[in-house]
Here is the input.
Amino acid sequence: MSLTNDQLQSVAHLARIAIESEWRDALRADLNSILDQASLLDDPRLDELEPMAHPLDQTQRLRADEVTETDQREELMAAAPASERGLFLVPKVIE
Amino acid sequence: MSDYVIPSGWEAVIGLEIHAQLATRSKIFSGASTAFGAEPNAQACAVDLGLPGVLPVLNEGAVRMASLFGLAIDAEISRVSSFDRKNYFYPDLPKGYQTTQLARPIVVGGEVTIPTGEGKKATEHTIRVTRAHLEEDAGKSLHEDFHGMTGIDLNRAGTPLIEIVSEPDMRTPEQAVAYARKIHAIVQYLGICDGNMQEGSFRVDANVSVRPTGDETLGTRTEIKNVNSFRFLQRAIEFEIERQVDLLETGGEVVQATRLYDPDRDETRLMRTKEEADDYRYFPCPDLLPVVLSEATIDSWRAELPELPDAKAERYQSEYGLSAYDAGVLTSSRATAEYFEAVIARDGADPKLAANWVMGEVAALLNRLELEVGDCPVSAEKLADLLERINDGTLSNKLGREVFEALAEEGGSVDAIIEARGLKQISDTGAIEAMVDEVIDANPEQVEAYRGGKDKLFGFFVGQVMKAAKGKANPKAVNDVLKRRLDGE
Amino acid sequence: MSNNSQHSSATGESAIVNASIVELRRLIDAGEVSPAELAAIFVGRIEALDPGLNSLISRVEPAAPTSSGGSLSGIPYVHKDIFCAKGTRTTCGSRMLADWVSPYDSTVHERLTGSGGVLLGKANMDEFAMGSSNENSHFGAVANPWDEKAVPGGSSGGSAAAVAARLAPFATGTDTGGSIRQPAAYCGVTGIKPTYGRVSRYGMIAYASSFDQGGVIAKSAEDCAVVLGEMAGFDERDSTSADREVPDYAATLNDSIAGLRVGIPTQWFSDALDPSVGDAVTAAIDELRAAGAETVEIDLPDADIALAAYYLLAPAEASSNLSRFDGVRFGYRCEEPKDLQDLYERSRSEGFGAEVKRRILVGTYALSAGYYDAFYRRAQKARRLVTDHFHRAFERCDVIAGPVTPTPAFDRGAHSDDPAKMYLEDIFTIPVNLAGLPGMSVPAGFVDGRPVGLQLIGRHFDEARLLNVAHQYQQRVDWHTRMPPVAADSSNH
Here is the structure.
């Protein structure tokens, strides 16, 4: 399995990460050496196994439908890079 | 009802995806309030903002409400369901993923029936529901002026939703609207969604494709978003069918895409094509475990189910003798049915009379004032008072309407209005006999003619008596007395 | 037992910095040292030693203990800088959060503070817990106190180095693929990664949610037992937290291990294992036998498959977990974004370091359309395979003993240009995370002056047994009492 430059570009776009051109080849080589290991997963012993999503065999606990949070806007928004009148600001979103 | 007719030679195939906000007190994964209308971000807690390190815990209320919906449409409630992450970047999506259910939704299958056609052609259609799953709502982007910036309010982020996906079982815009209305009625009957379309509590996306009549294969579909009323749903689908048929008839091609309905221009416009759609990279949410429901829990929820629209409509027919059409209209929304039932809760109430008034005067008034039945200026209690006065002969139907208008405009009690306006009907036989005698004495020629066989003149006499009584005489009493006197008893 | 202070007294600095938590609590209760004095001693050591080690990212002004009766009352400690503590900067070793002050407390912080613990600082770490050398920190590399040319291990490298240098009696850590055990081994300290679900993850910044587990790095198993007893337990804010009682870990430390069945994974003693590390681990196992334990050979194959699965699953979860760092609500935001796309791309590209970006990209790819089945789903099946191997092994033994890492601490810079090679350092620790089992790293000697660790692995929720075995081992050896020369020098001032 080998990642092409185009694939790398589209994955980078999905992840919203810009790749400086001087890093591209080294990065691609790194990713390919990681993905090469994935061929170990072709092992036929895996075919019939149930995929495992969690290490423990537990089920979801349900929370009572109660309001437990109070307004902490000031504290929670203190770290916002840009905000105004209680709103987070981002560059104009065009729909 | 629209007069829209699909272009001849073509058939439309329509499926709907409906997002209904669940009426829980707190959010699906946090203890923040879901109340509408708070200051921006005042109801967005650390979990809703997706701060580093926070974790979700599932709200039982949301699971219960989604299950109630499933039970109401005869669906299967998954004994094991689970949550997945749908990954994409958008400023109103705080974590960069939406927690939703892809692989194992909580509700699978189910169906609803919708009325189609009117009068003699009225019939029923079954629309299948594919699935309904739980997910979290996103926040809102505000595009007003923030020096060319967009403001993000995350109060809505984390509000529980069920997304109800139908099979492509609808063939006309009317059917689609009827289905959407039915789902709207069901969620309101269940009390799991307030159904407010303007505030976005109930949102409908339509998947529309067309094909030549008789074709089995489906045409390329488009998804229409941003439809926030039933009327717009009808218009948007009509527009989209026309657009697609025009394209195909002129040698064009329908492009699979998401389109936005613009109500101001009454058209749909391209939002993004399939190629531009994100690769959402769904995978099982590692912060949430499988949701397992026991038979006992599901049974206890089943026991909570209220009487639903179909059952109620049937009961109205069998118990009150209403027509299928009337029963359908009265049960079409929970609020209307509640209003009607409050009116007939009065001892001695006549359900048919009540049905006529609710579907007639009340509906007309609401239409005129553009109000919902819950905000009707004439309460069910007042209408029951009024119908009681019609039943006991105090008011004629006509005078009743006058009292109803007065109630709507000025309020007050029924009896006080009758008193103040002197609208009491004259039912006293002595007074009516006196008026009848006066009319007979004053019109000897007409009496002669009537007795000579000109039966049609009876109406003339009734008119004269009513004129003398200024319209307040009890019509039945007037008839009785006139008949006696004229027929020479 | 080593006691290298010339004027030893119960409250002399050397005695204090080497004392157990129980002993420190006794000194406080007896009025021989106050919590403030104790904090001052360790703050002094931090000021003297940390400029050379760089084990802390932030220092925290010590507060008076909130509880006087708790088993940690007055005991100083440091947090791995992945645990949110309200009002403290919590960076996760990243430029992305370089200035982020947490507005809330993690459950672990709440519990340690509630038990009277006194926070002295936030420990350095590989960015977002991704790394095995602590070289991936935005705040610079950490020196191994035993040898400044060596890495301290990662990702909890700062925590392990701080405890090794006696800058605090204990530190918190997190372990996703070995991040407590490996640095503990490299720094000659004792670390425990509990069963997945044992310690709440609430407020612990996520790397890979189905693997991440908080734990303790301390000088001894006994100290780990005391701290874990306070940290562990059900938390209703974490859906994956286990609703099970926490046993009194200290109560069973002195139980005999006679008759205990210790499983030895034969495959782990192969060519991949540095022979001198193998010798040290074998000697440690001999000590367990001498204490009455029986050893049985067990099969734990497919470590290579485990590694391959981990390096798809963990990055996949990470790619999603780290999407929230978008420059909108908190954290780093690029200068003058020209549009939304630019805001996202530059904030994330400038805010994340190379290893984090690598893993996000691998994870994104593994989850993307067309590759999900071949990568992600297949890796989940491999997780089952590896877990089944452990379950089978535990039919024949009570604990598993083996190496923590194939080699002692490597030199700084040795693997920084080959991530895949670096990942091999985790080959004995990762399978434990795939299965969600508890694991410990216990000092077991030195190779060329660099510490070597013995790994103990238990059944789910069998932490008490691991601590018991480790403690019994530590009753027979003194590796865990050895102090790096740089730390000893300071206490002799």
User: Anything to note?
Assistant: The CA atoms of residues 88 and 96 of chain B lie 6 Å apart.
